[in-house]
Design a protein that fits this description.
It is a single chain. Helix content is 27%, strand content 24%. It has 139 residues and is an alpha+beta fold. It has a single domain, classed as Cytidine Deaminase, domain 2. It has a five-stranded mixed sheet. Strand 4 and strand 5 form a beta hairpin. The mean pLDDT is 95. Zn(2+) binds at residues 58, 95, 98. It comes from Siculibacillus lacustris.
Length: 139
């Protein structure tokens, strides 16, 4: 895997740009996510809710699907932004299912970055978000 550096501002900008296109008519909570793959490409996703609630798609899952569709297989970094459609951003960590989805393509030290309305960034390693995790190497 090649090491690529993407400016954190660029990653958050990609997540914020896709966030406004989320489909969240039920919760009113719009989320955008961006992942950097092993080639240094950014892939984005937004949450897509569904009237049959459990059938919705999280922003992180959408970004991962876009990465895989483009041929990517390694996540180097993740950025997530979220909040009410007409409100301020709030720190929006990935749900448990998305943490596991990130784990499929990332290493324990991969960083997940979260941003709030004031611009404060919280950066956490995947192993801190999903300790003692199960991954492909366990099969």
């Amino acid at each position: 895997m090649t090491h690529h550096t993407i400016a954190l501002d660029t990653l958050f900008e990609a997540a914020a740009d896709v966030r406004v296109r989320a489909h969240a008519p039920y919760s009113g909570f719009f989320v955008g996510a961006a992942v950097v793959d092993g080639e240094g490409r950014i892939h984005v996703g937004c949450n897509v809710e569904n009237a049959a609630y459990p059938e919705g798609v999280c922003a992180e899952a959408g970004a991962i699907s876009a990465m895989v569709a483009a041929g990517g297989r390694h996540i180097l970094a993740v950025a997530v932004v979220g909040g009410p459609a007409e409100g301020d951003l709030v720190v929006c960590p990935p749900c448990g299912g998305c943490r596991q989805k990130i784990r499929e393509f990332a290493r324990a030290e991969t960083t997940v970055h979260l941003k709030d309305a004031a611009g404060a960034v919280t950066s956490l390693r995947l192993e801190d978000l999903l300790p003692i995790s199960f991954g492909p190497e366990h099969l």
